[in-house]
Design brief:
The chain is an alpha+beta fold. The protein has helices spanning 42-51, 58-69, 73-89, and strands at residues 12-15, 19-24, 27-32, 38-41, 56-57, 93-96. 39% of the residues lie in helices and 26% in strands. The strands form 2 sheets. It has a 3-stranded antiparallel β-sheet. Strands 2-3-4 form a 3-stranded antiparallel β-sheet. α2 crosses α3. The model has no long low-confidence stretch (mean pLDDT 92).
């Protein structure tokens, strides 16, 4: 499995093109047209996917999600980084690492 660099707040994230996404019962499901793999992003993962329709920093994502889901920013950040690491390993997003 590929190891990803640890993310910091100024790293920029954006989803890659080439995925078919649909809402099913409040959750997002997706198929990569490049690999044919299916993904169930769930409701929170789907929200993150929506937010990544434009490039955002990790800090921006955490700020929005911590507010919307009423969760401590540190806990939110940890969970978001884990999710983004998985998306990176699957080739679904691009991360531009800052300094």
């Amino acid at each position: 499995m590929t190891t990803t660099k640890s993310m910091n707040g100024e790293d920029r994230v954006m989803r890659r093109e080439g995925n078919l996404v649909s809402d099913m019962g409040g959750e997002k499901v997706m198929m990569s047209i490049h690999t044919g793999k299916y993904y169930n992003l769930g409701s929170t993962g789907g929200r993150i996917w929506d937010l990544l329709s434009e490039e955002r920093t990790l800090s921006e994502l955490v700020e929005v999600l911590a507010s919307e889901y009423d969760i401590e920013p540190a806990v939110c950040r940890e969970q978001v980084v884990q999710f983004l690491d998985h998306l990176t390993q699957e080739g679904l997003i691009d991360v531009t690492y800052g300094e």
